[in-house]
Amino acid sequence: MEIKAIIGDITQIKAGAILVSFFQGMKNPDGDTARVNKALDGAISQLISQDEIKGKSGELTVIHSLGRLPAERVVVVGLGKPAKLTLDRVRGSVAEACRFLRQKYVSDIATVAQGTGTAGISVKSSAQAITEGALLGLYAFRQHITEAAEYGEIKKLFIVAGDKGNLPSLEQSINKGMILAEAANLARDMVNEPANYMTPSHMAEMATRLAKDYRLEVSIMERTQMQALGMGALLGVAQGSQQPPKLIVLNYRGSDTKEINLALVGKGITFDSGGISIKPSEGMGEMKGDMAGGAAVMAALSAIARLKPKINITAVIPATENLPSGIALKPGDVVTAMNGKTVEIISTDAEGRLALADALAYTQKLGAKRIVDVATLTGSCRVALGDVYTGVLGNNQKLIDGVINAGRESGELIWQLPMHEQYKEQNKSDVADIKNVGGKYAGAITAAQFLAEFAGDAPWVHLDIAGTSMTDKERAYQVKGATGVPVRTLVNLVLSLSK
Q1: Distance (Å, whole) CA 437 – CA 378
Q2: Which of 299, 248, 291 is nearest to 271 (CA)?
Q3: Counting C-beta atoms within 10 Å of the first and last residue's C-beta, which end of the chain has fewer, N or C?
């Protein structure tokens, strides 16, 4: 879809539809909405007086112009109460309007900069939010569907501004919004792929393609190299599968220094059956998405490379399947991780933390100044926070706050869980240094405490996206399937660290 800023009057734009906004609690339209209302001979104010337009968040009202405007339709977008307006609401409202109009086979849309002048929203920030909302909201995964879609295609979206001086900053905002949304959609594509199309080798091929397209450095570590480094935890997970494991490393160099300012580590379990501790068959197909953390950090690096901040970022993705077989890891086994720690296997279904253990130890060896890992790690986090908030834990409050703020900017909500030392007691083993499951209670916390054993002393943050990586329903700019969380958060974090 082409998205561009234009200078003009919304009432003079020829398009399949134009979008204007209305706040809940207002009695009369104002600004651009008032001008469109006048051109429609008061149709908007009449519908307001009849309580058909209330301005509630998510409300969409279509008015056919019948030749009174160059645009064929006017869509009045409800933005809710002004005091509660956020950029995320703008994203969501635009996404829902675009999906609605796609069903009507509208191919081109023009919109005013939604929500400007309220809650500190600028024309520039609105333009970025509109861009993100449109691209994220119109996303569809149809790679394996042979029948034609039962809806049209929106090919053009124009953001209309009245001041020519705003044009350069609007274009920059649109470009940034496109980069962020396209990266999130890339992660969605990877996670939505069936596991036979997104194996560890396919993830490695994707990394190689991204490196070529965006001038990143890439290295793919094979089994023998991992054995030489002593990655017994990751290789223990991999030994039940015929698919060869890969340790994928991507580097973005935006600074002349050799230091790694931030390492992003993403869990890349391309299918998780649970191994010998096999999962119930119901819902097991969703476990193709257990590599969402790896997809997120790869996609984030593609966006970072396009935005070119002056900072060095490394992404590390341990990629493997977790399957049962005659040679699979068994409960009661003991493996040795790269940092020399021994791990007793309580459940082979707690495999993600094993893969991450060696990836974190490797990242520590690289000397990264900060580490953020991303993983669909625990059902416990999903039970605690549902599908609304991502859980965050770590050893450095400043970095945790930075991640939470980056998430707030992107609309990806993050909630901090405690890392009290007392929880470490649950991970103690009688036969090894540590066990990979800490028991029934506080599972998200004990899993993070397990990871902390391998992260070292560098500032480290763990994001548990078990509840937020997928959604089973359409909501604002999220569509059924993979969400692309937390790609935009990671990019915003990097941009803030580079300042």
Answers
A1: 11
A2: 291
A3: C
Q: For residue 469, which of 291, 283, 292 has the smallest C-alpha distance?
A: 292
Q: Which position has the token pair 């030392």?
A: 421
Beta partners for residue 316, in sequence order: 249, 265
- The domain segmentation of the chain, as residue ranges, is 2-180, 193-497
pTM attached to this predicted model: 0.97
The predicted pLDDT at position 275 comes to 98
The CA-atom distances, in angstroms, between 121 and each of 56, 91, 492 are: 19, 12, 18
Topology at the third CATH level for domain 193-497: Aminopeptidase (3.40.630)
Type of residue numbered 38? K
d(CA 383, CA 356) in angstroms, rounded, equals 22
Closest to 356 measured CA to CA, from 332, 379, 322, 325: 322
Average pLDDT over residues 197-214: 98
**Residue type for position 12:** Q
Q: Is a pLDDT exceeding 90 seen at residue 455? A: yes
- Residue 340 to residue 356: CA distance in whole angstroms: 14
Q: Write down the catalytic residue from 99, 124, 353, 435.
A: 353
pLDDT of residue 322: 98
Q: Do residues 297 and 374 lie in contact, with contact meaning Cβ atoms separated by under 8 Å?
A: yes
Q: Pick left, alpha or beta for residue 105 (phi over 0 → left; psi -120 to 50 → alpha; otherwise beta).
A: left
Among the listed residues 35, 279, 341, 408, the single catalytic one is 279
- Binned at pLDDT 50, 70 and 90, residue 370 comes out as very high
Element (H, E) at 3: strand 2-7
For residue 281, give every residue at least 6 positions away whose Cβ sits within 8 Å of its Cβ, in sequence order, or none.
none
Dihedral, 275, 189, 385, 87 alpha carbons, nearest 10:
170
Q: Report the candidate in 205, 435, 250, 239 with the shortest Cα–Cα distance to residue 320.
A: 239
Q: Is 279 among the catalytic positions?
A: yes
Question: What CATH architecture is 2-180?
Answer: 3-Layer(aba) Sandwich (3.40)
**What does the alpha-carbon distance between residue 494 and residue 486 come to, in Å, rounded to a whole number?**
13
End-to-end CA distance of the chain: 31
pLDDT at 164 over 90: no
**pLDDT of 320 over the 90 cut:** yes
User: Any catalytic annotation for residue 102?
Assistant: no
- Given this model, what pLDDT does residue 389 score? 98
How far apart are alpha carbons 317 and 499 in whole angstroms? 26
**Does residue 453 sit in helix, strand or coil?**
helix
Residue 43 to residues 13, 21, 142, 178: CA-CA distances in angstroms? 18, 14, 39, 34
Q: Given a cut of 90, is residue 245 above it in pLDDT?
A: yes
Question: Average pLDDT for residues 215-223, to the nearest whole number?
Answer: 98
